[in-house]
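check these tokens.
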Amino acid sequence: MHAHCDSLHCFLPPDVLDHMVQSEDPTVREAAAKTLATSAALRSRRVTLAGIPGFAGTPSPTGSKYRLVYDAQRRYEDILDNLVRQEGQAEVTDEAVNEAYENAGITYDFYNEVFGRNSIDAAGMALVSVVHYGEDEDNAFWTGDKMLYCDGGIIFGSTTQDIDVAAHEFTHGVIQYESRLEYRNQSGALNESFADVFGILTQQRFNDQPVEGADWWLGGDILAPALKERGVRGIRTLTSDKAYENDPLLGTDRQPKHMRDLYTGTADRGGVHIYLVATELGGNAWESAGAIWYKTLRALSYYSNFEDAAKMSYQIAGGDYGINSREQLAVGEAWAGVGLTVEKAQVVT
């Protein structure tokens, strides 16, 4: 049994569910089965939305940052009938609502202030978040028009607690309106990679973390206490390390760190390349490295693969910073470090 989130963008790596459904513990198996069923239902909805010509998200009444947070009340249906907080309103007593509201705003500000982007669609669409989605599930989702946050179960606490989770799902929306990377094979792996990269960069900028000593782990703030006690720091990492090994619940991190280890499914969520660029350049990773990766995200297309991403990011670095500039050389060396060689002296302006 294989747990894939094709056409549905979810935070929990599918290989973790693959491991969980084989557990001897019936509670773990049931939790994985529930998440699989939820993913399948949401996947069907997102495929339907993708097939609607000219489909657009909820418009913002102001044309700029506008947040709407709904409480699903642990339901799976009729999840938009309880609006609990919208743009400009004061905090409420439900921390999950406030966290979803704040993290959507932090991510909007990141894209707007760093890249000049006005919301997910670049045209000011409202940011719709739904909290308390489903019962005891370990996931968060981008459905094509909204972000869904579960309360957690075995692996996570509430998925609203971590900025990088919100930014990861937000970025799936950005990709939907830009390169539209197909969610399968290497294109799907790239889709996840970009979501992880900008999830991390959003968090680093908010916490004012330069590369030296920065946090490169995803999902660290939402891990269940038992996982933290076993030394797990996050569900994924953009470094060359494995996020976990031989963990009784999670198994071993299968995220490839090099092209020789490439598996062609969407479980490949690699971000080692930008980590290598950022550590070479120093300073703030969201500045030059982030700018190159954002332009690359926008320049790719539906069927792009890792070789396309390597070539495009190298060309963009040369166009923006100069042929054989420190930035372009860092990009070339980073891709070489994960097994991809790019042609020299190329630029895209």
Observations:
- Residues 1-7, 263-269 have pLDDT under 50 and may be disordered.
- The longest strand covers residues 67-71.
- The CA atoms of residues 20 and 195 lie 24 Å apart.
- Residues 26-50 form the longest helix (25 residues).
